[in-house]
Predict the 3D structure of the following.
Amino acid sequence: MTNDEKLKKLSEMRKEAFLGGGEEKIAKQHQKGKMTARERLAELLDAGSFHEIGQFITPRADFGEVDVEKDLGDGVVTGYGQINGRMVFVYAQDFTIKGGALGEMQSKKICRIMDLAYENGAPIIGLIDSGGARIQEGVYSLGGYGEIFRRNSQYSGIIPQISIILGPCAGGAAYSPALTDLIIMVEKQSYMFLTGPNVIKTVTGEEVDFENLGGANIHLSTSGTASLTAKSESDALRLCRTVLSYLPANNAENPPFIAPSDDALRADLELNNMVPVDSTVPYSMHDVINRIVDRSSFIELQATFAPNAVVGFARMDGGSVGIIAQEPSIMAGVIDIDASDKICRFVRMCDCFNLPIITFVDSPGFLPGVNQEHHGIIRHGAKVLFAYSESTVAKVSVVTRKAYGGAYIVMSSKYLGTDFTFAWPSAEIAVMGPEGAANILYANQIKNAEDPTKERNALTEVYKEKFLNPYAAAQAGHIDDVIEPSQTRPIIISALKTLHQKQIQHPMRKHGNSPV
């Protein structure tokens, strides 16, 4: 064979690999409104930056497969490229080949690219579109999933791992995205579940369709599995590019810095009147956050899951930060089981990747009730305590209004290692609300009063004046400063600059035993 003939064969094989499962199956993919694996990678990565690895891999021939030689790539496209000029490693399952089902060699390709990402300290992004395990490969397929899960776990907290669900992700396959840092799903196109509608109907008698069982909105709002959703594949891929701009390439780097277009000293006088005088009247914490961070930089995660808690990425003077807050306009900002899990997970992710944590506190406490107690609010609330206490990144907290009891302690209080704690003049820092406290502190006076109701109201006002303010905490050193709300942005930015070189070394150990 001449050199020209060899080059011609190479060209033909590349053409075959690029066709995946063939033109007919590509057409079916397009008819569903879905892109092919390579089209998705072209849109996700910087133009011309993708380099493929393992293009000619095929499954072993001893599984009774038909037309093995035509399945070049074995149902997944793997390689590396750039996003906004930064190196990333990627894999995209190809639904045109056996429905993207995972087999032994597909697993080896994915594991290889994950290993390269770890060894080179770069993010790994998985584009998931697969019918699950390849049944005809039996235990080899199951073993392949196990190898991926192990790497998801081992590389967690070392390199960012992002999963973009662009189609089905069913059965044990769903555990790989669940082990990654962020999951982005496409509305009315992607779904995740362990057991499908047919199995559920057979076993439990319940009838449910794919969308209501494991669609994007279910996982964003109900299960809390998804971090973000998008209306289309293109939106999901753009969202991934945006999220990555807040994260470092690995745990040894600082988060990326973007030249700020917002004034670091910008004051916002509207903040001075943001908190209503009546502490029972709600206000928007989202509005507070957006007025303090760099303009248009806040991207909220899990927005409709436990919406009484707020988590997300933002920038302060160009630097990436994690934002955690309560939303007083929803359930008064109370902390429940789901909010605890949401906050804990985000604190730990920020700590993994060196993002300073800014916490805005306005919570009357943990949600009371038999259901919460029986379902483990103690255990779940302890996760938040553990996460804040374990974290070593720079931490700044601002009490805007209510900080009662356990909620005050767990929400980045100084006792848990927060570096700077500030409070607005509207802050109410106390063991409990004024009515309950007055009933306990002045029980005899109220009981023996000529008009108990009038006496209770009067003594409640006395308690408010004496204890329900930030100055008692400031006098004891538990609050570093009571600040004018309009100056919150420049004060936080100054604090973060002060903490830029912060370093803490925990005692040597294998790992802590976090409540789960």
Observations:
- The chain has three domains: 3-244, 269-431+469-498, 434-467.
- The mean pLDDT is 92.
- The longest helix spans residues 104-120.
